[in-house]
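Give me C-alpha cells for this 268-residue protein.
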Amino acid sequence: MDHQLMIAFALCTLAGLSTGFGSLIAFFTDRTNTKMLSLGLGFSAGVMIYVSMMDLLPQARHQLVLGGEGVLADWMVLGGFLGGMLLIASIDKFVPEPVNPHELQLVGDLAGPAEEKGQEGLKRVGLFTALAIANHNFPEGMATFVSALQDPSIGVAIALAVAIHNIPEGMAVALLVFYATGSRKKAFLHSFLSGMAEPVGAVAGYLLLLPYLNYITFGIVFAVIAGIMVYISLDELLPAARKFGEHHLSIYGVIGGMMIMAVSLILL
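Here you go.
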C-alpha cells in the first residue's frame, strides 16, 4: 500500500506541474500553436471519455456489487456519474468567465498593455485566477489519486489526460496574471502554485476517504470521477479545441486518445 501511495501521489504531482510548464510555453512563444493545442485537447478528451465509459463506470458497478449493493448498484453508479457532472458544473458556474482557467486564452488575445485591458478589472485577477484554478484542480487531483490507488494503470492514463489539459490551462492563467501585474515571475509563481492544488487534492482525498475506503466507497468515487471527466471533455476540452479553428485535428486527437487508451487497457 505504501508503494501505491507513492505512485498515486507522484502522478498527481506531475499532473499539477504541467500547469507551470504551460506558463513557460506562454512566455517563450510568440504566438500560440493552435494546431498542437487542438490536437492535444482532443487527445485528452478522448482518453478521459474512453476510460470513463469503458473502465471507470464498469469498475464502479463491479465494486458496488462486491460491496453487496447488487440491486441498487446501477442506480448508485448513475447517481455518482450525474453527481460528478453537477459538482464540476457548479464550480464552473460560480467562477467568473474572465478568470475561469477553462476559458482558454490565445497569446494574441492578451497582447496589449495592461492599461488597455482596464486596470480596475485587472486588480484582483491574480487572486481570482489562483482561486479558480485551485477549485478546478482540487477535484482533479483527488480523482487521479483515488484512481491510481485502486489501479495504477488507470491512474497513469487519467494523470496523462489531466496533464495535457493542464498545459493550456497554465498558459491562460499565466497570461492573465502577467497582464494584470506586468511580472513574469509572479505570473509563473501563481500558475505553478495553483497547479499544486492537484497534489493537495490528492492528500485531502486520502485523508478524508481513508477511514471509509471499501468497495462501496470506491464504486461511488469511480462513478463521480467518470462524471467529472466526461463533463470536462464535452464542456471544456472539445469546445476549446474548436475555438482554435482546428475542428478536424481535435477529432483526430479524440480518436487517437481513445485508441491508445483502448490498447493500453487490453495490454495491461
